[in-house]
TrEMBL record:
It comes from Ogataea haglerorum. The keyword Oxidoreductase does not apply. WD repeats lie at residues 236-277. Keywords: Repeat, WD repeat. Signal peptide: none annotated. Pfam families: WD40. This is Uncharacterized protein. One of its GO terms (cellular component) is protein-containing complex. SUPFAM superfamilies: WD40 repeat-like. The keyword Repeat applies.
Length: 339
């Protein structure tokens, strides 16, 4: 088992979970323009790794005895006119075929079927939505896809026919001088079992999190941190700055969120209340390493994920988190009698 990271230096890195030191197992240079999204799929004999560069190009790698590039890709994924962004693999519970969804700057999302390590083009969403597609997630239980857009809207599709099932519009802030939205969707995630969906959106300079009932297409509510600011939109906010990432734990009882405010929050999905608050310290980063960076480069969370329980030998069966920061640091946390 590995934690796989990508970064603006253009490299993929695999960190081993065989012991608590989480050593760097292997790395490969992929693209000089840098990488920004990564998704994994475990097969019977290997680990498939998909990633996208800032040039909009998709790459596929296979990890078995060693890390190798998979160059035999369908023409649609090699089209130089296409600019890809977010991606997500899905393991088919019925073992028919696995799925890759990948969003595009045009607002569309492409679907590919996966047999072994061979990708085959399936379909492209036909929605009239032309806003940049910023995030995607797949639910294997009900075979649905959620796509978030730069204008704040989120669409849920039936994966078999790519039929739009629900549209969740954003009613957030807009620029006074234009119709541009300040409600960009940063992350969409289905809960285990596919009954809930969490959406992290901007609200101006703040970060909000909405929970939706996927079965009935209804808003359940928002996750809110106490605030006395008059600049916060209706419903309150979850983070003092943009919320970049959300993740459900294995049983869906908890949701973790991370923002540019250097804070990780853990929420109960049943009560929608905050269970824990982790302020991530920058003191573990060398001052010289940050001396030539801007404020964004100091942010300690650009992505996070719950890790499987019992993943690392000797660390127990409590929930764990891995957090990747713009400050070029990977941090692992483990629950110990409470987070």
């Amino acid at each position: 088992m590995f934690t796989v990271t990508c970064s603006a230096d253009g490299s993929l890195k695999l960190w081993s979970h065989s012991s608590s030191d989480r050593r760097l197992e292997t790395e490969v240079f992929v693209d000089k323009f840098g990488l920004h999204h990564v998704s994994l799929l475990e097969t019977s004999d290997s680990l498939l790794i998909g990633t996208v560069s800032f040039s909009g190009k998709f790459y596929l790698y296979k990890m078995s005895n060693r890390l190798t590039a998979v160059d035999d890709l369908p023409a649609e994924l090699k089209n130089e006119k296409s600019s890809f962004w977010a991606l997500k693999f899905m393991k088919d519970l019925e073992e028919d075929h696995d799925v890759l969804a990948i969003t595009m700057a045009s607002g569309e999302t492409q679907i590919y079927n996966l047999h072994g390590e061979t990708l085959t083009y399936s379909a492209t969403t036909s929605s009239t939505e032309k806003s940049f597609a910023t995030s995607v997630d797949l639910d294997p239980t009900f075979k649905r896809m959620a796509v978030g857009h730069q204008n704040g809207n989120v669409y849920i599709y039936d994966l078999e026919y790519l039929k739009p099932l629900y549209e969740f519009q954003s009613y957030g802030l807009k620029k006074a001088t234009s119709s541009s939205s300040l409600s960009t969707v940063r992350c969409v995630r289905f809960s285990p079992g596919g009954t809930l969906m969490a959406v992290a959106r901007d609200s101006g300079a703040y970060g909000t999190i909405f929970l939706y009932d996927v079965k009935y297409g209804e808003v359940i509510g928002t996750l809110t941190n106490a605030s006395h600011s008059s600049n916060v939109g209706i419903g309150g906010f979850a983070h003092n700055s943009w919320c970049m990432s959300v993740s459900f734990n294995e049983d869906g009882t908890l949701l973790a969120s991370g923002g540019l405010d250097d804070t990780i929050r853990v929420w109960s999905t049943s009560t929608r209340t905050k269970e824990a608050n982790l302020v991530v310290s920058k003191s573990d980063v060398d001052d010289e390493a940050l001396s030539h960076t801007n404020q964004l480069d100091h942010a300690t969370c650009c992505a996070l994920s719950f890790t499987p329980r019992g993943l690392v030998p000797g660390e127990g069966d409590n929930d764990g988190l891995v957090i990747v920061g713009f400050d070029r640091v990977i941090r692992w946390f483990r629950e110990a009698g409470g987070v």
